[in-house]
Amino acid sequence: MKSCLIKLNQACEQLNDILKVGTTEGQVYEFCQNFMKENGLTSSWDNNCCPLVHAGKRAIHAMVRPGNNDIRRGDVFHLSFGAKLEGYATDFQRSWYVLEEGKSEAPEEVLKAFSTIVNTIEHVRTNLRPGMMGKELDVMARKIMGDAGYTYSRGCGHTVGMALHDGVVTLGPDNSTLGELPSRIIEKDYVFTLELFVDTSHGVVAVEEMVKVGENGGEFLYIPQTKLWYIK
Q1: Which of the four pLDDT bands, split at 50, 70 and 90, describes residue 232?
Q2: Could you tell me if 93 and 206 are in contact, meaning their C-beta atoms sit under 8 angstroms apart?
Q3: Which residues does residue 96 pair with via DSSP β-bridges, in sequence order?
Q4: Distance (Å, whole) CA 74 – CA 21
Q5: Residue 160 in contact with residue 91, Cβ under 8 Å?
Q6: What is the pLDDT of residue 42?
């Protein structure tokens, strides 16, 4: 998993060379498809919509192939990418902001959303322990997000193995759809995603990291995104 995440982060670094005003979601999709082919990777989910690419508030949030929506100034640009290598899946999300003329940083609305997500992921990661139930972690995340004025409907993470959602434990609330998954006990060495998102007037801000459960918290499988990335 770690070697695959290293490759996906390399893809993000290379993306910085093509991400600009006017680049379409479809062009980013094609770049990522070519990157997977060149690096021996396969999609973690339906190849027709892997990765998911969203530019601005007008982006369509569904499991559909990215199209002609183009990056514009003042957009949040969001990438949800997952690939398989050597039989194991990965899943991660990253966020950028497209600077407006004369500006050097994103608006407060976007910065607050990003920092709240990152702080929530870090809190859950450091408090993750073997023996806990998945829903206990979700309660932690909802408290921090709620205190900042944000709500979300799904859980804050899930286990990943040879499948993207391997059905062992979900970090989510009790409900009829999830069944017993939120109440299952977390064990050492399980691998989880920790993922949260906020809808803003500039587009969705989201971050997703992968961690391995240890005795004293979750260990990031690769370098996390702790700062909002910019498209100038």
Answers
A1: confident
A2: yes
A3: 77, 229
A4: 10
A5: yes
A6: 95
